[in-house]
Structures are given as structure tokens and as C-alpha cells.
Records
---
Amino acid sequence: MKTRRPASYSTRQQKLILDYLASLGDSHVTVFQLVRHFEQEAAGIGQTTIYRHLEKLAARGIIRKYVLNDGKSACYQYVGNDVCREHFHLTCEQCGSLIHLDCELLDTIQGHLLREHGFQINKLKTVFYGTCGKCLSPYTR
Amino acid sequence: MKTRRPASYSTRQQKLILDYLASLGDSHVTVFQLVRHFEQEAAGIGQTTIYRHLEKLAARGIIRKYVLNDGKSACYQYVGNDVCREHFHLTCEQCGSLIHLDCELLDTIQGHLLREHGFQINKLKTVFYGTCGKCLSPYTR
DNA sequence: CTAGTTGCAAAGAGTTTGCATGGCG
DNA sequence: CGCCATGCAAACTCTTTGCAACTAG
């Protein structure tokens, strides 16, 4: 009984979008940037299609959706098929850099939250906000 | 030369809004809930006014603005002068509830991140996403 | 041929702004 | 009385949906 796999065609647009996202590596893009990019490329991809693919890709965990604090346009970031699934992410509020953190202590948190607080943390969505080393040292505000 | 204090009157609406937010303590409210609340109270406060006050209060750090992951309506929470500054927050992606977590283990994270990874975490902004106990038990997906 | 996909335009949802009126000091 | 605050309605921004045409398998 093959429950999932609701049948999915591979289309030109799909490939273009995924390829572009993958080409960006760690960096994040807004929907607006994507729309503009494909417009300039005259790729012929409607923004509705972009929204729809982003939604699917995010649901499958291939990209990640961030909602910035200003609540405006969302940001998406390529995560790939397995990279970035196992570690947490930190983002610097000063310089905006995204830091990938593999750390045993943090891994224990996952278990602790589940056992002690009944909370199943979602590593894909959780992002720590703060200030990175680079931004801390120069000017200690 | 009195630089700041750009002249601010104290109005009925201002007081009502701040008092209500303060009365909620830790819990968070959406703009929609605020609007509805004052409507039911027949308080005569337009939603424009609510938006404007929330903006000012957030700018002054008296309340905190959260943007949930769905990017829809923002949530505001009274912070007052110190409450909620010391613990972390978890939010359930299923039911949307906000959980306040005072936990020693998590507190060690702050120090660990700083010492080992040079990252100064901002507890005010960091929110853990996941699934809460209530939503985990019923249907284990 | 069938079912998923596309994309335009229109609808929605949440938030902001223009502007005339009202209220604090 | 001067200036900020208020609030209605309209404008805006970002996102989703309706629907007819299109296309992969």
C-alpha cells in the first residue's frame, strides 16, 4: 500500500526552481527575489507557480521557510536532501549570517524536551536568534 | 535641550490598550483578538489605533512582537519590565500554543553557546518550534 | 487519455496610510 | 488654541484560490 506519492510530474518550471534554489547554497531568498530572477531570465514562470513549488518543497523539507520578524515577505533556503536536517541553526541578528551548528549538547536538548516537557522539537524550523562571534567582538555595544 | 519625548498625550485608548496587555501577563494575543476584545467591551477603539499603539509599545520594548511561521497575523506579548526575559519559549506548530519554559538545562545552553561557539543567544527572540504534548498523543501522525 | 500543473486574474488576509475630526495639555 | 491622537475607509502588500488551458506519463 503505497500511501504517499500522490503522483507528481516533473516539469520544466519545477526543475528550474529547484535548480536555482540549490545553486544558492545556504543563502536565503525571498519570493520577490525569485519572481524577479525568473522574470529577468525570461523563464516564463508565473509567481503562482513559484508559490506552489515553494510550498511543496518546504513541506518535503527540501527547502526551509523563514518568516522574518517584520512579518513581510517570507524567505526560503535550500536545505537539500539531508544536509542541515541534523543540526540546529543560529542566525545573527546583526549581520544576518546563518550558522550551522552540530553540537552534542544541543542534541541532548531534543531528548530532554521530549522526555521532560513532552515537546517534540522541529529542528528544521527552529532557529536561534542572537549575535555571532564576529559581531560580538568588535564593538561590544 | 530636551531631545527625546516627542510629545505624547495620554489618552483613554492608550491606557486601555496597555492595561489590557499587562493584564494578560505572559500570554500572547493577536491583533485580531485585541480588536475583538475591545469591540465586545464596546470600548470604542479603532483597529488603526490598536496597530499604532502596538507599534509604539513594541518599539519601546514594552511588548514583544512575534511573527508566527505561517506569516499570518502577528502576535504580541506583554513583557513589561522584566517578565519573560529569562526563559525560553516553545510554540506548537499544530495548535499554535505558546509555552513558557523555565528549565535549567536550557539555561546551560546560553552559556555553552557563548563559550563554545561564541554565540550570544537572544532569548527574547528565540522560539523553539515543534509539537506539544497535547498534539503529540492523540494521533501520532 | 487522465490527472497533475500552469498562470492569469481575482479574491483574501493582514497591515498601513490619507485625511478630517476629536481631545490633551 | 496648537498639536498629537483617533478612526473610518481606501490603499497596499503578500499570498492563495478559481478556473480554463496545458502537458507529462
---
Amino acid sequence: MTSYGQFCPVAKAAEIFAERWTPLVLRELLSGSHRFNDLHRGVPLISRSLLTQRLRQLEDAGIVERRAAARAGGSEYYLTAAGEEFRAVVMKLGEWGQRWTRRFESIDLDPNLLLWDMQRWLNLKRFPPRRVVIRFEFRGVPRVHRTCGRWWLMVEPDAVDVCIKDPGFEVDLVVTADLGAMTKLWLGDLGFRSALRDGLIALEGSREICEAFPTWLALSPFATVDRPAESPAPHAAATHAEPS
Amino acid sequence: MTSYGQFCPVAKAAEIFAERWTPLVLRELLSGSHRFNDLHRGVPLISRSLLTQRLRQLEDAGIVERRAAARAGGSEYYLTAAGEEFRAVVMKLGEWGQRWTRRFESIDLDPNLLLWDMQRWLNLKRFPPRRVVIRFEFRGVPRVHRTCGRWWLMVEPDAVDVCIKDPGFEVDLVVTADLGAMTKLWLGDLGFRSALRDGLIALEGSREICEAFPTWLALSPFATVDRPAESPAPHAAATHAEPS
DNA sequence: CGGTATCCCCCGCGATACTG
DNA sequence: CAGTATCGCGGGGGATACCG
């Protein structure tokens, strides 16, 4: 948070934005989380005290407004107009990341995070008007996250939740998948059909539910970002494309 | 540079971009600096060893390419295609900064940086085809930068330089200005005419040169960014606007 | 649940000196 | 000029315990 000693608008903005964890906290706020614990679920590796500190800094900078919670205890955190305008920066940063980073190293795979993201963007309107429970069984989960291997997504008309313990309700659908493949799917790097065909993802449930599932799932906001143009595949490809 | 442990493209990009000093180093590279010392002039408060380290990190991340310098010793640093695409991020960040930060605190005023920026964006085509020397005398310079109070801008058809010592040539124009006002002018927060009118900036030279000077000077790339709409002045203004 | 407070360690970074 | 190497410190941040 110390100054860069420059009047340049890039420098002044970077003093706020380019602090460790801050872009992720902003991403969470921009995605619609307002409660401390929800923010923390989206950025689980930040320590709670540091999250507090970052929220205070953002408040001091006029990015975040802290309000007493309407219901229950604690506070709620809202972006100000200035904070909301970081959306363009976060989006551009994410677009860059989608185009130029390798995102499927084992160290970055996190089933909790994936499900937390998924539940945020579900097409709730397409669900039947009753409780739907989906169990996920992931293969290829990094050790740190391998608590039990099963996760539940509970979708009710007015509430969604991710559980790491069996909520006890009847399961409508079991999704068995390689975590890397599921993450690629989410990020638009793998198609649903080819994942099913190659056995990377398998669905187990009524035909109706299995067919509906792909329509329930929205993909990451960055799934549709163009990938960089291939470095022109030298000779073979060009030749191959030529009429013979 | 440690991982955030998230597959999210925002997180992966932030691991690279949201490191201390990195946005400023990228800004310099994007502005067309390639030599180590030029980069350092644009980010003078970073230590040379840390600048080296950041450039290495950017190289490892595939953002920067290091080449043996064509002339003279040392290396030159060029952005790769991936690096060039950070332009959109840096621009959005700067636009945010232009709209929402206070940039004229004394701690941020820096005459060297201001002149370094100015020389970078001069309208060289509008200069007469000979050497032109401009002397700047700034008032209100923070202590740390108050080396002598005078700076020279030397413009030759094929070379521009900023000096802190008298280069010895005849001076064509003397610009006397309050440093804060000059910075505001550069950032589009103050008009040339009103600055002259109010005595914040004074020109001393031939009539021809004085009239040409404003056309030589380009402004910051962010000077034309819209300022945020005023928070609607509550009651008085509304009432005032009503037909009576 | 929604944080605070405290301790303490590590390493990011500045300072300085050195090199080709 | 364009860096590299080394040292030492300060504080950023993790771990843990505590509170309303």
C-alpha cells in the first residue's frame, strides 16, 4: 500500500489494485458476494485476518462500503461506484489470463472452488421447481483437497448450497468426473459431448435429468474468450489445406 | 509470485500482473522503452536489482523477450505478443486511476518523471528542423526532487533528451510553472489558457515559439478520459433546474 | 457466524559493493 | 553503461487463540 511516488494514473490505481489478493477480493465482490464468509469461500487461501485488512483498505480507498447486515449479525460489503468500475479491469485481466496462462496445473485444481463458482452461475430458471441434489465424485483431486472425494450441490428454488458432507436427501444425479476435465469444461477448453464420449465425465441419473444437466450449468464468464491465434502451423497444415 | 492456488483466469493473470512494481514496468515497456536505464528512468524508485528481478520474472512468464542490444552493450527488452496484450489491462487500470484517484498530492509530484513523460509524447513533427532547447523552472517542487530547480528539454530532429544540468546551448523558451499545475495540465485537469491566465504557467521566448509551444506538447494518454458524473447535487440543484 | 488480537517467522526488498 | 552478488532488516502475512 506504500506509494509508488508517481502521479501517473496507472501508478495510483496500481497502489490499490495490484496488492496481493486484492484482484481476487474484487472479483468476488463483483461476482455478487457480500458476506465475509462468502468472500472467504471464494478466496479460501487468504487468511481471515488478511481478508479483513484488505477489506478495510478497500473501504479506506472508497472502493467498498461496509454496512451492518440486514439480517443476522456481522456486516455486508458492497462496492461503491468507484469499486464497480474495477469490473472492466478485472475482466480485461481475466481475458488475458484465459488467453495466456496454463490454468490446469494440479496445484490450481480445487473442487470446492469449482463447485462454488458453478453454483454461483447456475441457470436456476431451468431447474424443476423442487429440491435437486447432485453428487459429484471427482478423480484426480490434489492431496490437499482430498477430504473425502464427494461433494454435493443442493439446489432449491430459492437457495443453492455446496456441501462436503452428505446432506441426507435423495440424490437426483451423480456426476463422476476427472477434476481437471471438469475444470477445463468450466473454462471452455473442453466440450461437454467430447468429455462424455471420452469417459472424462459420466452422468448417472434419470434420462430426463441427465439430459437437462448440461443446460443447468453455465460456464465461466471467460469460457467464450477467443484463444490466441495459433502461431501459424508451418508447412504441413498449409499444404494440407490446399486443394489437391 | 507464489500461486493463489486457483484455476480462475483472473487469479492466474494476477499472479503475474498484480506484483508490486510490475504494472509500472509493463507501462514503460508498452510506452516503448526497451533499455534497462530507460525503463529505470520511468520507474525511478524501484531498485535496480529489483527491476532486474522483475524483468526476469516477466521473461520466465513469456511476457518479455530479452535480446542482445543491436548497438552498444547490454540487452534490450521487448514485449512478446502475450505482453503486448497487457496493454488493454494497463489502459483500463489507468482509466480507473484517472477517474477515481487523487493524483496531485505533493508526494507524487516529480519533475523528472513529468518531463520524461512529456519528451516521450512530444509532437516532434511540429518542431522546427533544428535544435530547440526549453528550460523549465518549477515552483512547488517537493524537497526530494529539489536538486536545483531547473530542467532542460533538448529537442533535436532525431533525438530528445531531458537534462538536469545546463546543456550549454542557447535557450529558446523558458517555462516557469507551478509543478502541481504543470502536472494537472499534463493529465488534462487544467487547461493551458486558464493556467496562463492565472499565472500558474508563464512562457518567456519569442512570440512565435510561445505560440507554438502548446502544439508541441501532447498530453497524457489518459488526459481525455471522462471524469465520473457528479453525484447529483441533492435538493438545491434539482430545485434550481426546475422551471419556475 | 464474523470477525480481532497477538505473536513470530520468513523473505521481499533496499543498500552497498562489485564486474565485464 | 548494464547489470550481478551479497547482506541484513522490517514488516507483511500466516498461525493461533480469543471474543461478541
